[in-house]
Automatic annotation (TrEMBL):
Keywords: FAD, Flavoprotein. FAD binds at residues 86, 220. InterPro entries: FAD/NAD-bd_sf, GMC_OxRdtase, GMC_OxRdtase_N, GMC_OxRtase_C. Substrate binds at residue 440. It comes from Nocardia panacis. Residues 9-295 form the Glucose-methanol-choline oxidoreductase N-terminal domain. It holds the Pfam family GMC_oxred_C. Belongs to the GMC oxidoreductase family. This is Oxidoreductase. GO terms for molecular function: flavin adenine dinucleotide binding; oxidoreductase activity, acting on CH-OH group of donors. Residues 364-493 form the Glucose-methanol-choline oxidoreductase C-terminal domain. Its cofactor is FAD.
């Protein structure tokens, strides 16, 4: 199936966090036509709109419902990796937490050979994105995306903050400000009690422009490459095969799982591995699917005697902290995230009244890979979680920190009782970590940016060796950022727009 609606100057694959931003900016800055292809459907589901109901979206039609391959260092488990198959992408499924990352993250990107990506260069782009509810010299208040920073958290969340302070962790009024360390209320992409994705803020307001076409239920299978140039994509749209033609460029914004998988299925990747999978190589690009990185959480769960109530219009995660697993670290490597409910695993038990301090590691050493089993086979996701012993040690430090916070006087007043891992876990803590470690839903790095032979895209996000093809999502991160990856993904899309249409 081909028609004029499937022929544009730019074809964008994925209407998630990055694709929505890139489409809007190209329409604003050029006279080009833009076609956006999204595999999922509408984001008008009331469950999506309500940030308190995010867990109800897992394993639904809005979730790609990916699982890792068995993880030998995580008790052999296959870990669930929720990814958004819906307008707005994973921004329609996540906790709406807005974290720029640490300035050192971007300076490291630049130091790895990526000019234009240092903190000094990207910080103004963040301010261009943001429409904060309170002004500050270091952040934006007139951008497109609303960011909520002033709200009254649940009473249990206030007690968690007080307990952290009692353990010696300072309160930080703004982790996106001059320093990242300390405990804070989270900043959220919420307005009037509803989730706001980049599809809401960027894409939907631009859909009345006749040069912009959005097609949902459009599953892209592979790229069309002719004479070394990407000229379009093929797939299935509403049950029928289609080909979309791009006169200028194909822009992949399908996320760290699907952008890399699409390249591999199109014959762009490690040539010998592609041949072994039954895929004819188009370009030997060894880095595709390598450098898969994620953040990791381990539940520390408490029951409570006092009744825990939830504030409507807010997610269950309302506070977090950035801290160090050991002294001497220049950048925090831990980010415990706090939920106003007990997040039991299926094998756990306990009362419904409780809270969870999710011990978080955000600068992991373990790195994994992504593969595809043939041109139409499943994606093999192997994050290699906890393969590096240092990651277990650092998560153990995060767990002990959460245990200490849960035992502080401010939470004893709530009758807090540790259910998991339990105060007596002791030497078995590493076993508990391997049995319970969870993805933080922050997959990155599979189409890494750089200039070395293992890089997939160059500093201008162009796929090396293929003309007319760029990747602009979390897959291009040379190193995963310190904290939630949604805001950095928005930044990547904004920078892509700057590079394509300055």
């Amino acid at each position: 199936m081909t028609d004029d609606d499937l022929h544009a100057d730019y074809v964008i694959v994925g209407a998630g966090t990055a694709g929505a931003v890139l489409a809007r900016r190209l329409i604003e800055r050029t006279e080009a036509t833009v076609l956006v292809l999204e595999a999922g459907g509408s984001d008008r589901d009331p469950v999506i709109r309500d940030p308190a109901r995010m867990h109800e979206l897992w394993h639904t039609a809005a979730d790609w419902d990916y699982y890792t391959v068995p993880q030998p260092h995580a008790a052999g488990r296959c870990l669930h990796m929720p990814r958004g198959r819906v307008l707005g992408g994973s921004h329609s499924l996540n906790a709406t937490i807005y974290v720029r990352g640490n300035p050192a993250d971007y300076d490291e990107w630049a130091a790895l050979g990526n000019p234009g990506w240092s903190w000094q260069e990207v910080e103004p782009v963040f301010r261009r994105i943001e429409r904060y509810d309170r002004p500050a010299a270091h952040r934006g208040d007139s951008g497109i995306l609303p960011v909520l920073s002033v709200f009254e958290p649940d009473p249990i969340q206030r007690a968690i903050m007080a307990a952290a302070e009692q353990t010696g962790i300072p309160v930080n009024p703004d982790y996106n400000g001059p320093t990242q360390e300390g405990i804070s209320t989270v900043q959220l992409t919420i307005h009037d009690g509803e989730r706001v994705t980049t599809a809401d803020a960027y894409l939907t307001p631009a859909l009345d422009n006749p040069r912009l076409t959005l097609r949902t239920d459009a599953l892209v299978h592979r790229l069309v490459v002719r004479d070394g140039r990407a000229t379009g994509v093929t797939g299935v749209l509403a049950g029928q095969s289609f080909t979309a033609v791009a006169d200028e460029a194909v822009l992949l914004t399908a996320g760290a799982i699907d952008s890399a998988a699409l390249l591999l299925r199109s014959g762009i990747g490690p040539a010998e591995e592609l041949r072994a999978s039954g895929i004819a190589p188009v370009l030997n690009l060894p880095g595709v699917g390598r450098d898969l990185t994620d953040h990791w959480l381990v539940p520390v769960i408490f029951a409570a005697e006092r009744n825990i109530v939830h504030t409507p219009g807010l997610p269950p995660a309302q506070t977090h902290l950035f801290w160090h697993s050991e002294s001497g670290l220049a950048v925090p490597d831990l980010q415990p995230l706090h939920f106003s409910s007990p997040l039991y695993e299926p094998w756990m038990s306990g009362p419904a009244n409780g809270f969870s301090l999710m011990a978080g590691l955000v600068r992991p050493s373990s790195v994994g890979t992504l593969t595809v089993a043939g041109p139409d086979g499943p994606t093999g996701i192997d994050p290699n979680v906890l393969a590096e012993p240092r990651d277990v040690r650092r998560l153990a430090a995060a767990v002990r920190l959460c245990q200490e916070i849960g035992a502080a006087p401010a939470l004893r007043k709530w009758g807090a009782v540790q259910r998991y891992p339990g105060p007596g876990v002791g030497e078995n803590l590493s076993g508990y970590i391997r049995r319970t470690v969870l993805t933080y839903h922050h997959a990155a790095g599979t189409c890494r940016m750089g200039t070395d032979p293992g890089a997939v895209v160059d500093p201008e996000l162009r796929v090396r060796g293929i003309d007319g093809l760029r990747v602009a999502d979390a897959s291009i991160m040379p190193r995963i950022t310190t904290g939630n990856t949604n805001a950095p993904t928005i930044l990547i899309a904004e920078r892509a727009a700057d590079l394509i249409a300055p």
